[in-house]
Design a protein that fits this description.
Length: about 160
């Protein structure tokens, strides 16, 4: 299957938002947990990230149709302060999504490589992302490895009293 990747423009933001929303729905996030104005929230975030964090979005195209997208940007990380600046310059890949009927034939890898290339140009010394179970093998094949990062969702049931 022949794919093309192009850099997204602000005119693509509504499409990026729709793909991003679909990504989260597939991961099991309910509509009830989404912000009422998710489109507006996404637009504000992406505008700020373009201006301050070197954000780039990429659109995966097949036969003239957008079938996927991904975004990436630098994450400000000043900790730990003893590391060289390059070692603290982290790139983050997010919103990587390919329409279901086009999965498994290289589109995700094409988008991932576009993001990694962009982050390298920005001087990132490391690239991070969070993966769902379905796409984990894609990232592992590209050389990503698990980290020791742990997370805790704070809920009323586990808050300290």
């Amino acid at each position: 299957m022949a794919f093309a990747v192009r850099e997204a423009t602000p005119e693509d933001d509504a499409m990026l938002a729709a793909f991003y929303r679909q990504h989260w729905l597939e991961l099991g996030v309910s509509e009830a947990d989404m912000a009422e104005d998710w489109r507006g929230e996404f637009a504000a975030f992406i505008a700020e990230a373009r201006q301050r964090r070197g954000l780039a979005g990429f659109v995966l195209v097949n036969a003239g149709l957008a079938i996927g997208s991904a975004c990436c940007h630098l994450v400000e990380r000043r900790f730990p302060p003893l590391l060289r600046v390059e070692a603290r310059r982290i790139g983050y890949v997010w919103a990587l999504f390919v329409e279901p009927k086009f999965r498994g034939v290289g589109g995700g890898a094409t988008l991932l490589n576009a993001c990694i290339g962009h982050l390298q140009k920005l001087g990132a010394g490391r690239v991070l992302l969070h993966s769902g179970p379905r796409s984990r093998s894609l990232y592992m094949r590209r050389g990503f490895s698990s980290t020791d990062e742990l997370g805790l969702r704070l809920t009323p049931q586990n808050r300290l009293k």
